[in-house]
Amino acid sequence: MPLPLLPTLDELLDPQTQPAPIRAAAAASTDPLDPIHLFNISWRRTGSIPHVLLPPAMTGVKANILVMSARHFPTGSHKVGPAYSVLREKLLHGEITQDGSTLVFPSTGNYGIGGAWVGPRAGFRSLVVLPEDMSAERFEKIEQYGARVIKTPGSESNVKEIYDAVKVLRTQPENRILNQFEEFGNYRFHYHVTGNSALAMAAEHGDGRVAAFVSAMGSAGTIAAADRIKAAFADSKTVGVEPVQCPTLYNVGYGAHAIEGIGDKHVTWIHNVRAQDLLCCIDDEACLLGLQLIQEGDLPELLPLKDLLGVSGVCNVLAAIKTARHYELKEGQNIVTVATDAFDRYPSVLERLRARRGPPTQGLELFHGVDADWIQEGTMEVRRRWHNQKYFTWVEQQGKSVAELNALWDPAFWQEQAARIPELDRQTLELRR
Fold first, then answer.
1. Contact 293, 363 (CB under 8 A)
2. Quick one: pLDDT at residue 264?
């Protein structure tokens, strides 16, 4: 199978810059497995960026809370973007070739689904390593895209078990590891495509600025968008989110939780912790109950969210409300957050909740009553601790050097990562020619 045409990040940021025949083919194809959909890995498929401005009656705050919706991406989640971006960079660098190798995607969900889709579209086999307790729908989607899956013990926060499985797979010569937690292709996709898309969307609302970008940390890819936003608005706040049940950054905590896609019990290599201003912890039960209220309740204020949010999206919304209150943001100020996926990944999760809790018993007070605790300011001392926590996973377990770790503390390091995007795009166009 010949290598398919590969899009640049600029072309994914604005599909109208794609060559006309490619854009027409990508817009017209109805086959979900068509490689032309690589060009549809974009927040802006049809000119506008799908999003919802949450009604103040729901949030109980004056600031605008804007939720970018990722359900229109080829796999139903924007995490297909990092999977493609990491693959693209390894192809450009010659680290992988179409030699019959298998691409291995360590994941707790949506990145693995993205890898399951991307690999075969580019002519590779895909193998996803995923915790066994993730939602049934995740495993179904992986298999639908033609990938194999290895189930590891535990749930969302059991990434160490994923790494243990990957260590074995790395010894097999046919495998190539595409680790979202350490590959800067993940960071660059979100810095450029998600960050600039968020800026364009916010420009249409309120004061046109972004007062805060709020994102839960899984691989810490999505939160890289805040670095691009900060380059435009230096006073914008970067707000990270993790579960109360697994407060890794908050107090070096640990534990299992039910917010699929976040809270992976380690600080990822690509997380620019020095740029993070605030940390919020959200209770996983509140996220599940919020999702149930949206899906099974009858409140008109929640109808626009019916098909928009998964569990991590509800978590982001609750954290955005907490952020608005913490910073006392005013009418016209914009908070941007992300609905990483949609409800199609969670019916089995709600079935388990319904068996345990019955039908919804709360109303909008679930959102209005977001508490003000479990918040940590990103002082320089706290940021240094967040940075130092990388040592245990990356130096002790994954073979990084202390010198490499120390380099991540320098803001110039992250600026250099973003500055590589134009050259990578140039190389992509050369490969196409």
1. yes
2. 76
**DSSP code of residue 75:** T
Dihedral over alpha carbons 200, 204, 207, 210 (to 10 degrees): -30
Residue 346 burial (CB count, 10 A): 26
Q: How confident is the model at residue 156 (pLDDT cuts 50, 70, 90)?
A: low
> Helix, strand, coil shares of the chain as percentages rounded to 5?
45, 15, 40
| 69 within a domain of the structure (yes/no) | yes
CB 318 within 8 A of CB 194: no
Q: How far apart are CA 122 and CA 115, in angstroms?
A: 10
Count: domains in the chain:
1
Residue 390 has a pLDDT of: 97
What does the mean pLDDT of the chain come to? 94
CATH number of the domain bearing residue 258? 3.40.50.1100
Q: Please, are residues 345 and 135 in contact by the beta-carbon 8 Å criterion?
A: yes
Specify if 261 maps to a domain: yes
pLDDT of residue 423: 98
Q: Report DSSP letters for 179-228, one per residue.
A: -TTT-HHHHHHIIIIIHHHHHHHHTTSTTSS-SEEEEE-SSS-GGGHHHH
CA atoms within 13 A on the CB side of 124: 29
Residue 223 backbone class (left: φ over 0; alpha: ψ -120 to 50; beta: rest): alpha
Query: Domain for residue 31, yes or no?
Result: no
Average pLDDT of the segment spanning 362-387 = 95
| Long-range CB contacts for residues 401-409, cutoff 8 Å, separation at least 24 | 408/269, 408/272, 409/274, 409/384
Which residue segment(s) compose the domain that 259 sits in? 51-75+190-391
User: Which residue, chain included where needed, has tokens 């109303």?
Assistant: 363
Give dist(CA 370, CA 295) in Å, integer.
19
14-21's contacts with Cβ under 8 Å and 24+ in sequence apart are 14/42, 14/44, 15/39, 15/40, 15/42, 15/44, 15/45, 16/47
Q: Structure tokens of 269?
A: 């290599």
pLDDT tens digit string along 247-259? 999 999 998 888 8
Helix (H) or strand (E) holding 355: helix 347-357
- Short-list 272, 295, 259, CA closest to 133: 259
Q: What are phi and psi of 362, to 5 degrees?
A: -110, 165
Query: Is 307 contained in some domain?
Result: yes
Distance of alpha carbon 84 from the chain centroid: 13
